[in-house]
Amino acid sequence: MTSYLKSELYRLMHYKWTYLFIGICSLLLLSSNVVLAAVKTTDSTFRYATTAFAFSNAYTSMAIVYILCISVSLLVFGNEHSNHTMKNTVTYGIPRGNIYFGKIFVQIMYAIIAFAIIAGVHVSSSYLLLENSASNDLNIYIRTFLACLPFFVFGLACANTFSFILEGSGGAVAASSGIMLAFPLVCNLLGMKFEVFAELGKLLPANIINFTHYDAAAEAMIMYWDTSAGFANCWLYGMVQTIIIVTIGYLLFRRKEIK
Amino acid sequence: MRENILTAKNLTKNYKNVTALSDVSLELMQGEIYGLVGKNGAGKTTLLRIITGQTFATAGEISLFGINSNEALNKERKRIGAIVEIPSFYHYLTAAQNLEYYRIQRGIPGKNCVEEALSEVGLLDAGNKKYKNFSLGMKQRLGLALALMNKPELLLLDEPINGLDPFGIVEIRNLLLKLNQEKNITILISSHILSELSNLVTYYGFIDNGRMVKQLSNEALSRECNRYLELKVGNTEKMTALLETELGCTSYKVAPDNAIHIYEYLEQSAKISELAVRHGVSLNSINVKEVNLENYFIQLVGGASND
After folding, report:
1. Radius of gyration of chain B from Cα atoms?
2. Which of A46, A126, B30, B73 could bridge across to A54 with cysteines, CB 3.0–4.6 Å?
3. What is the ipTM of this complex?
């Protein structure tokens, strides 16, 4: 397993999109802060050039990070099917378990590093360019990330599973999007009529991440993971669903024909 | 005593409605160069894919270096080198980076094996060239470099000369011969370009429609492909008796359609025809015939009906 992980890291280090992905995401968040700061210089009454606004914007947009997990997974997967490179690995006796779990491990590792860099650029540029609100928003930002982490892992595992069992990346994206985004939506719609779907929908990552609303009375964002029980549920639901999808994927990949 | 390197027993591979391999068995002993001959779609690649673990047999079993349990086979696969179908690599990496990636993955010690492998296949100067810019011939060479990098004991090569120019073909053939003779590497090579195999292999397996039609040694094949005198006569019994008593000829074979294949007297056909005429055996035709490998293969798998 160690050799496989090392080789994957070597490959990623020599792939330009490894850096471009982080660069582009960082640049987008940096530019949002630059725009806020630029507006503030022209309009002194502008209220949103603050770290509180920048951070709350980020932690209420975790659904985007969730969707980006599909891109991260595909980036690390490296078009193994269309490049026909996985056959080399299998031919030389690398166990399929090492390949399957190794890929997920590298994806999680890369995703965490990428998020840390991107969030680091965002946070530091917020403090450098915007007015410091001296609020609790950075703590909420961190707590939100930690609460959503198992859902991101589920997103990576889901895309990884479909990348392994389907031949094309298009199919993997469609299937992952279906499970990660469309299925929760369908559950919500059916839940209006059937209670069982409403209950099922409450367990799904996309619905939990989107469970965010503004409490005008308290003047604060209300999120699923505000309470300890909510936070624990995020981890419980995320991990259970990850284990299910990873197990299904592995069982299918074990007997899959590699071309 | 020579070690048994690879055994395939009654391998069958079915896809939904198609049987790609049917009850195929073969055995490779150490130091052999086994030529797997078959036209496109005959089942050569399927067989190699089962051996390399890319796909699984519906029935039958394989053993590598005497080991046949599924888990242990993976370990034994570290001792082989293989090209199955067109070699495939990451297009954004250079040749050297691609080999380095697999070197790390396979846990091969020593970075210099990458350079050695590139040098062995004549790609040292192209080591820093990206794979996406490689020609088919260069891709084949890189595939061979990957196969050689771990100093394998068994090489499995699926059409390795596809895309190579004539110089490349000779070069690779000489390299394979050298590896076989100097390092005692056992080779299983598949091809439909029979003339190339005839200069290389020691044992042949002819495969058609997923079935192993015939297996024979190079010597046996040479005997079967020998030049001979084909005699078509009215009475084969009388003629064969005359050949034996009058000329002392024993190297002949009675073939269908009143034909006799004589493997002697190739330059003295007049003597044979004179013998037939003198003893009143009606002689319909007398010709020198030769079966080349291509003709032999076509005859074996049923000729044009299989095209």
Report:
1. 24
2. A126
3. 0.85
> Are residues B105 and A258, on separate chains, in Cβ contact within 8 Å?
no
- Asked if B75's CB is within 8 angstroms of A84's CB, the reply is no
| Per-residue pLDDT reduced to its tens digit, A81-114 | 888 898 999 888 888 999 999 999 999 999 999 9
Distance from CA of A122 to the nearest CA of B (A): 30
Contacts of B128 (CB under 8 A, 6+ apart): B94, B95, B96
- Structure-token pair, residue A188: 């919500």
**B111 in contact with A, Cβ within 8 Å:** no
Strand-pair category, B252-255 with B259-262: antiparallel
Any idea how long chain B is?
307
Measured distance between the N- and C-terminal CA atoms of chain B, rounded to whole angstroms: 42
Tens of pLDDT, residues B59-77: 999 998 888 877 788 888 8
**What's the CATH number of domain B4-222, 3.40.50.620, 3.40.718.10, 3.40.50.2000, 3.40.50.300?**
3.40.50.300
Among A150-154, A195-199, B247-251, name the one with the lowest average pLDDT.
B247-251
pLDDT of residue B280 exceeding 80, the answer is: yes
How close B38 comes to chain A (CA, Å)? Answer: 20
